[in-house]
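A note from the maintainers: we've had questions about how concatenated examples are separated. There is no special marker in the raw files; a new sequence line simply starts the next protein. For clarity in this README we add a label.
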Amino acid sequence: MTETMQRVRLHNLRDIGGIRIGGGRFADAVLYRSAAPLRDDPSIAAAVHDLGVRSIVDLRDQQERSMSPDVWGAADLRVEHLPVFQDRLRSIRFQTLDELYDIMLGDFAPSVAAAVGAVLTRVSEGPTLVHCTAGKDRTGVVIGIVLDLLGADRADVLSDYELSQSSLGRDYLRDLFGVAGPDDLPGGAAHRATSAPRALLAGALARVSDEFGGAEAFLLAHGVPQPTLDASRLLIERTSAIGT
């Protein structure tokens, strides 16, 4: 983690750069993932801007957003709201995260695809940060599909996803429930679950493959245009270009 990243007071923040893709790797400093800002601190936006980020893709429901500090306006950042659960998270009933992921890729597949398309579009314009509340489940699936589309090494994709387990803990829960009570936050059960076992994302990506034939077919079936998918290949740094 760079010194600039260490100054950003966001839980679960990391750069996707470096993940292996065929004969190359995902480019550094173009796509970041994190939890939502949970402290009313304008320096968060300034520090994210210092990373080079110019676009934010926020996957939360409106009710989640209304319960947390709105800090992005403190810097010149374009914010795009794409609620994966279509502002219906409070009404969704599930017992386990496996069930929630099944619902996400079943009932809300068009929203997931739209979020992936938005991330690809924003990244083509400049460095982008994508987040939900924890930066784990919705963000994990969206980032996972982006990487799967590019043909990233599956072990690397799952290892990146699993990092949320060590990044989210007491400090995250303290900040989260400092802005919203457990019973007030939509999907409170999911937000209290800070584990991110790789099997969860592995199952989600397997469903995309089994039902649609892969990430590209999934995205095309839900309206993401082919030129957007083609342009995403520019995110791959070839080995010959990086001297490794």
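[label: protein 2]
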Amino acid sequence: MRRAPPVLVVIALAPLLGGAASPGPTAPELEAAGWRKLQWNGIRPANFAATPSGGIRISGRGEASVLAKPLQGAATCLAWRWRVDAGPPSTDLARRGGDDRAVAIGIGFAGFGPQADLSVRIQHAAAQVASGQSRLPRSVLMYVWGGTGMEGQDSPGGFFPSPWNRGIAMLRVQRPAAAPRGRWVEERVNLGADWQAAFGSNAVPAVMEVIVSTDSDDTGTPVEAQVENIRLVPCR
């Protein structure tokens, strides 16, 4: 995505509204469920609509947008189901620009990871003041359908830093762009274990927000995807 350079202006932290993102019109059914839409200035917004089953339908072509809503609880496990019917080809998610993906699920946490140095914390504090009373996540895990990570990784594996927000957001390719399309996939991830693996600390902060995003503005490709039943669950 082509975005402004400030370190906190990234898709994982769209609620910061740091000048490159602004509130967009949220479908009434999604707004009633607690979601709010953010869109990137200068980039056409994708369409998010509620499905009859209470999920989210994502559609667009060469567009990008974010949905976010509060999600409070301990960092146990997160479960959801999703499907992609159309999406971008595999792109390098570790490189600025060209980092398209069909859909990503993000979880915002209340505490910083050890990679957040003083400069990141100062910029986060400034963004927090600008945001008003809404508390902003201090670390984010992103589970992505599409793209590759560091060293061409295109299958579920390790986390790698977002090129837009090192020290705050860590990404993992949960499903590669070549994963079978047109079928539902059930997911369950251990947020506590993943946060420890991604940020290298045992002190896992509380969960505070869930994010659903899409991004195909660089490749200009169509996106058709759905996400349902995002929830915190006990770890087995």
